[in-house]
Amino acid sequence: MDRSKQTSVRVTRRALLKVGIGTTVGAAVAATVGSASESAEPSLAMPDSPWSQIRGFNYQPSYGSSGFELWQKFDARVIETELARGKRFFPKMNALRWWQSWDSFLRDPDRYARNFDTTLDLAEEVGCRVMPCLFNRWHDATLDYGGIYVDHFLPGASWVQKPKMFDAFLESLVGRHKDDPRILAWDLCNEPYAYGMPREKMLPQIVEAETAWLKAMHDRCKELGAVAPITVGIHPGVPLELVEPISDVLSIHPYFVHNRVNASKPDYEKGLDRDVAFARKVGKPLVATDCCWGSLDDKVRVESVRYTLGELKKRGIGWLVDLLHHSLIADAHRPEFGPLSTPGNMAFIEADGSLRPGHEVFNEF
């Protein structure tokens, strides 16, 4: 999410084929442990489904600090090692949200396509299906990840635009893997509408242009024959109503930002309840595709994970937490590895391959 601007943004398939991979989830509304058990049970929960059984991670390899760098330096051996660590520490891990890099694809499309194929093979080796995150709109002032900027979708904003500029990328990934059972879902974009002010105060043509761009990407994926569902991962403050028309599955990023002034667990839980109510109303699955706020303090982070996953499990919402392994990207490492912003460290596995203290908490859920 737009982690560097928490204070200014209002903080709100074949049927998934054996997605449980040996795991089961009990009742959709389940009791949990720690601080989460102190709150009242939600009045609504998602119907029990394979989506409720998602127990996964966002994954960024350790060797790069941006999406472009990670794919340019693609290292299958490192990735294989890191995923194996993940499965060893977290046996229930059954899905990976794997971020892509359109700008790296442009440098060598054939190489990128081969490497993408490799990621699916490596994920399958550890019993995981993949949610490729095709584009990114989250940007960080401390250590930017790269991706899509306003220039790419606002008509006339700059000279970078050209007709069908994203088609080859989508054809190479979505078209070539349109019915690949290893694909859990296609996430069109990570955190669109990530503005530094409330959306209603933005120039309306920017919001309209971003919506039009997302719809164009959605329509192209459908034209290419995508069988896996399409989703859009939105950050708190963006209403599900905005992306529901282009989402087969609704994706939320329910961060409880514990170090934000006036952070409120009751408000956080009410937000989750609203999302559940909306998903049930429109009859679509709901999944958390990015969650669990970070901290440099291991104990604080553990409690953040315990609370967040407890609240999600109560409501029958599956999750892909941030982040499986130490990485040089923003907020995925200890301070000695580079700059950090508001969340601090969000990694579950350390740079040396050891489990971060207390982070076996993931296995409680």
Low-confidence stretches: 1-38
Summed over residues and divided by their number, the pLDDT gives a mean of: 90
Named at the architecture level, the CATH assignment is Alpha-Beta Barrel
- Quickly count the domains: 1
- Secondary structure class reads alpha/beta
Order of helices and strands: EHHEHHEHHEHEHEHEHE
CATH topology descriptor: TIM Barrel
Q: Overall 3D geometry?
A: globular
Your description of this structure?
- With 365 residues, this protein is of the alpha/beta class.
- It is built from ten helices and eight strands.
- It has one domain: Glycosidases (TIM Barrel, Alpha-Beta Barrel), CATH 3.20.20.80.
- Helices cover 32% and strands 10% of the residues.
- An eight-stranded parallel barrel has the order 1-2-3-4-5-6-7-8, surrounded by four helices.
- Strand 7, helix 10 and strand 8 form a beta-alpha-beta unit.
- The chain is globular and about 50 Å long.
- 48% of the residues are buried.
- The N terminus is likely disordered.
Q: Summed up, what is this model?
A:
With 365 residues, the protein is an alpha/beta fold. It has one domain: Glycosidases (TIM Barrel, Alpha-Beta Barrel), CATH 3.20.20.
Keywords:
single chain, 365 residues, alpha/beta, TIM Barrel, eight-stranded parallel barrel, 8 strands, 32% helix, disordered N terminus
